[in-house]
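Running co-folding for SN-glycerol-3-phosphate.
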Amino acid sequence: MHIRTAAALAGALLGMPALFLPTSAAQAADEPQRTITIAHRGASAYAPENTLAAVDAADDLGIKWVENDVQRTKDGELIVMHDTTLNRTTDVEQLFPGRAPWKIADFTLDEIKRLDAGSWFGPEFANERVPTLKEYIRRVSHNRQSLLMELKAPELYPGIESQTLRQLRRQGWLNHQHVKHRLIVQSFNATSMETVHKLRPDVKTGFLGTPSVADLPKYAEFADQINPSHKTIDEAYVAAVHAVNGAHGKPFEVFTWTVNDAPTAVKVARMGVDGIITNTPDVVRDALEDAGHAVMAGSR
Ligand code: G3P
Ligand code: CA
């Protein structure tokens, strides 16, 4: 008999609701660990990445966590986009042919708002715009989703950490409930995550990369997660990361990226990762459910 079933049965016999059973029984070693699914740039296999349509596509699939990338315009507005240039995911080359290499930092928000950020993906998305961070957070809030927010190339945007935290605070995302359950800030730039941690020690942060095990204590001073490419990890590495406590005194979590097929999702879940960042969140979620590794929607 499965340990949780046995524990629930014992609780029922003793007249106790299963909820009040000792945690040690509920977290027995033979329980499969739970892995959450995060929609990478939104559900970006089904809608143009980092748009509100991609947030909604994730929501339509019942996916609670979305990942995005935050950068800043020439006139100091925070927007959501992955590349540091505008040409791959908008029609900027047609609208502003003389402005190569089309860096985000060289365009005002008014100019960026004129761009079509959907047609490159499919004609049905022709009206999509590049969202501001404010618009993006509003939509995530409306959908009751959670946010894994990446500061992309923060070295290009001095002060983006405090500016982003200000925006989050204005929209109610730095209250206890959000900080505890619905927000993680991550970056490939460790200094930037150190800054976020200094400014708001209560906010959970992640370092994107695969640092050596020997270096993990350094990351533990400011980060709660180590988030590596799935191509760089194995079970031993995940266990070694879990063996170190992060900035909040709990074992480092591991969210790996970018996994878009079922067999790889199950493989990395079996390595023990805590989260899988994916363009195809339905495929990953379903594979984890079939393998008994999924977190139920809304439970984390
Ligand atoms: O969240 C992990 C992943 O987004 C990091 O890579 O290039 O897609 O931002 P990238
Ligand atoms: Ca990203």
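Result summary
Strands lie at 36-39, 65-72, 78-80, 146-151, 183-187, 204-208, 225-227, 255-256, 275-278.
The CA atoms of residues 56 and 143 lie 8 Å apart.
Job closed.
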